[in-house]
User: What shape does this take?
Amino acid sequence: MTFDIDFLQRILATIFKAMPLTLLLAFLSCIGASLVGFALETLRRTGRWQGYLLRFVIDALRSTPILVQIYFLYFVLPYYGVVLPGPVIGVLAMSLYYASYLAEVFKAGIDSVPRGQTEAAMAVGLSPLDVTLRVVAPQMLRNIAAPMGNYFVSILKSTPYLAVIGVAEMMGTTLEIASDTFRYAEPMILLGIVFLVLCSIIAWLVRRLEARLMANTRR
Amino acid sequence: MDQTAISINKLNKWYGDFHVLKDIDLQVATGEQVVICGPSGSGKSTLIRCVNRLEAYQDGHIEVMGQEETNLPRLRRQVGMVFQQFNLFPHLTVLRNCTLAMTRALRMDQAEAEETALRMLERVRIREQALKFPTQLSGGQQQRVAIARALCMSPKAMLFDEPTSALDPEMIKEVLDVMADLAQDGMTMICVTHEMGFARQVADRIVFMDAGQVVEVAPPDSFFANPQNLRTRTFLEQIL
Assistant: This one.
């Protein structure tokens, strides 16, 4: 296998062109998955029946392959008149799938905040929403920054799945070059390296954030 | 002392089959200070936690300022509570610990809330620590902040759940002094404590509980000098 500089440059240009959309999809999915996951876990705790129902929803989302969920949303929603663009389906699918994992992380996080904190917050007359958002959530975050960060990395690494529904993210566009030229080694090696660098940066940012959260709120 | 601040009537509570509180009747007048004592497991803490409904009860009624409020956040704004473990919010400064509920629950603006908070911190003699985080303070200081935080909501009554039990001995006095000041100012108080010196000095009445029942209620003088019930006498012999 000989490395051809022009060819490498062409691949890199393609990857970089698709990078903003890929990062945007991942970013939106991180936010979506966090919000949905936190809502799932908070609501799951509000009562017995909500508990059973949402436990089932969480388990169902977590126990089916993400690829199945992507295809499901892409091909089945239109039957019900809901036709959404590929990138929107992608964010939706990744948000739901990873929400189920993050719900578990939030479960551990909420449990890590001492019961006395919730009681004190209720005792001064805060609403249940304020108890959760102002007292429990900030204390929980520093305990779960690391596992949350891991799932953010996973979300970025899941963007290649969206190639199957024609989203122009890094994997799909790189694959086009590969199949045009029948040369797979260079495109896949470069794509791997780009993901490696991006994921390392996220991991580093999360570690920094974690250190800062720890420093601010000593216990 | 004519108006009843807290009225507990025929209160019963069970944990499963275990009958924790049995037919409790207790009226606390406005401006009155009541100390509840008794052996551990007698239901003292559970009783005052029923008053602000941190504990649910199955039977009976509790009225605060003449009514049984069903909106729990509203009820809890009327009754301040101080916990054994302080339970300050570790991610917020002392000042923000005090202002949080004022700005969020009472919709007060930040400046006004801070002014109130500083006044209450002054009252518990800890104003100079306003910008520190709770973990930078000693136990006694933290508990005084907790008292200030509760006072910020202008409660009609205060509940103290063994406020000095988690403190090192040398810090107990500073907390009791602040509580005695509050009593002096006419705050209605129900205080679960083992500090019999405080009870003797501050309480209008002492309630002795055992096995989920109110066994004896008496003013401090007769409570200590001439306890009527055998269980009260046994308890006092053990602790004094």
